[in-house]
Design brief:
This protein is of the alpha/beta class. It is built from seven helices and ten strands.
């Protein structure tokens, strides 16, 4: 793992963007694995600004998102489909037919997403990390060989999402999601994990310096050949090295 520690969230976003831009510059038809949540918003803002200012194009790229809630309409303001369009896709030239976000609730829906990815190699997979060490919606206990599947969200995840995205209304947060599995994430050529704030410090410490265990799903990344963690000082505060 290559752990890059910078001062604050703005610096995290800029450093993460530098990684993303190198990928897209070197490969015009790059396949982008994308994440939702608060962590990558700054990265996406930098991508949009660079597209406007410098003309960096995503016209030949395609994207695959990690996850989506179950039981929420795509046009719902808190769906991940809406999140991605509001925070990234409306601001760059990625073609709509090259955008992939999982959707549905059945085994067949999960298998359909797997099929869409079967001949694709993700060039860079963006990740956030949950306070409990989850990546995507792969909660603690998820096997490392998991592929796209339906997930029951942990109470801590539901509470975090209520606070960040549902105006504190925990009753409005879906309790299930469809998520790429850990095996899908590990197949990416490069992984870019972004974290900021003291609330992520325990998860980062366990991911980097703890044992590799399904109790901390992100610890699987210890075996990835090209994994970059960009974290601020607060998120790195428990690292011993």
């Amino acid at each position: 793992m290559n752990v890059i520690v910078v001062k604050d969230y703005d610096a995290v976003s800029k450093e993460a963007f530098a990684v993303m831009k190198e990928v897209v510059t070197n490969k015009k038809d790059a396949v982008l694995g994308l994440a939702t949540g608060s962590s990558p918003i700054g990265l996406y803002k930098n991508m949009i600004q660079d597209h406007k200012d410098n003309g960096t194009s995503y016209a030949q790229c395609q994207s695959f998102n990690l996850d989506e809630y179950v039981g929420i309409d795509r046009n719902h303001p808190e769906s991940y489909w809406t999140f991605m369009h509001e925070n990234l896709f409306k601001g760059i030239d990625l073609p709509e037919d090259k955008i992939h976000v999982p959707y549905g609730s059945t085994k067949e829906d999960c298998e359909g997403y797997e099929k869409a990815m079967e001949n694709v190699s993700v060039d860079v997979q963006v990740l956030g990390i949950g306070g409990n060490g989850h990546i995507g919606f792969n909660e603690p206990g998820t096997p490392f060989d998991s592929v796209t599947h339906k997930v029951d969200l942990k109470q801590s995840t539901i509470e975090d999402n209520a606070r960040l995205f549902f105006n504190g209304k925990i009753e409005d947060v879906p309790t299930q999601a469809v998520s790429m599995g850990i095996a899908n994430i590990m197949k990416a050529k490069k992984v870019l994990l972004i974290a900021s704030g003291e609330g992520k410090a325990k998860a980062i410490q366990a991911t980097v310096e703890g044992p590799k265990t399904t109790d901390v799903p992100a610890s699987a990344l210890q075996d990835h050949p090209d994994c970059i963690l960009v974290v601020d000082e607060a998120a790195a505060s428990l690292l011993k090295k």
